[in-house]
Design brief:
Blueprint lengths: L4 E2 L12 E4 L3 H6 L6 E2 L5 H13 L2 H24 L8 E4 L5 H13 L4 E3 L2 H15 L6 E6 L5 H10 L3 E3 L1 H5 L17 H13 L7 E4 L4 E2 L2 E2 L2 H8 L2 E7 L1 H11 L1 H4 L2 H8 L8 H12 L3 H24 L9 E3 L4 H14 L2
Parallel strand pairs: 1-5, 2-3, 2-4, 4-5, 6-8, 6-11, 7-8, 11-12
Antiparallel strand pairs: 9-10
Helix pairs in contact: 2-3, 5-8, 6-15, 10-14, 12-13
Length: about 350
Amino acid sequence: MRHGITSVGQIEDYRLFDEIIDVRTPAEFADDHIPGSINCPVLDNDQRIEVGTLYKQSSPFAAKKIGAAYVAENIARHLRESFLDRPKTWRPLIVCWRGGQRSGAMTHIFRRIGWDAQQLEGGYKIYRKQVLDNLDELPRRISFKVICGATGSGKSRLLQALALRGKQVLDLEELACHKGSVLGVLPDSPQPSQKMFETKLLAALQRLDPAQPVFVEAESRKIGSIQLPDALLETMRAGVCINIEAAFEARVEFLLRDYDYFLKAPDWFNSRLDVLNKLQSHETIARWQGYASSGQWRELVIELLELHYDPLYRRSQNSHYSGLNATPPFTTNDLTPAGIDTLASQIDSCIA
């Protein structure tokens, strides 16, 4: 290790530091960051744009002067507001994009004060590479039990019920902030960036015991705008399928409860239906939008299942999850919370 510069070989090694300080801009930090790190930008979003524009359009020297002034001001403010109470033994890790001037400036000042501050060699870019390397290897160690079933079968709720029973669960839709289908967008809950999703996914995978099975819901390659890593998808598709066959009427009732937020915002729902224009005729979409506008939600859900979701499910699941029909299905006429808990109990008693 060079003086004041450290190389972190494993994701777990980041925990050896007392604090991780990410000095990138708030926008960079929001896109993704090391779990547990705090954001103390040495250049804010506008300042970084200003310095970068000056560097390209005027001169690197002029950009460095104004950049240094901003960096000095911001580090002084962070020092006063956030770090004056840190003891002399405090050992922070300072992170920027590639382990260059931004993290180097704060590391230099902190070390001059007397703290054993370390600058991450390679910066966030090296951390990002570690995430991708881990996601290419870690999922292959896991034995997945894949919950399959047509739309409205309560698969996500079933995962939650299994988790309450102490089973290991990987809830990909929760991590992706999306219910998986074209109408799966959640109100007031934007999806994370692809990078942030992968950071959260890795953290979830690391909490699992590979010696015990992990329950997961069958997913396509994408959950909304989020793409699943190849290693994870391949391992899931090779897993043991647990097929849920719920009565059609029970599925309709479940969807009316589970998507009740759409009932309060028919205009928003109708705007979401527009994404189906390549899969359904204009006449069909117009009829569905009419159902929503007039509050005919049951009729809408029935047609969505019969004309869109069920045919799509049959095509995708049979082609991607070869073990779908290898074992007898779990059947149910009840997808209320009590019914889903009963289903979880049956699965718990049958699946080793």
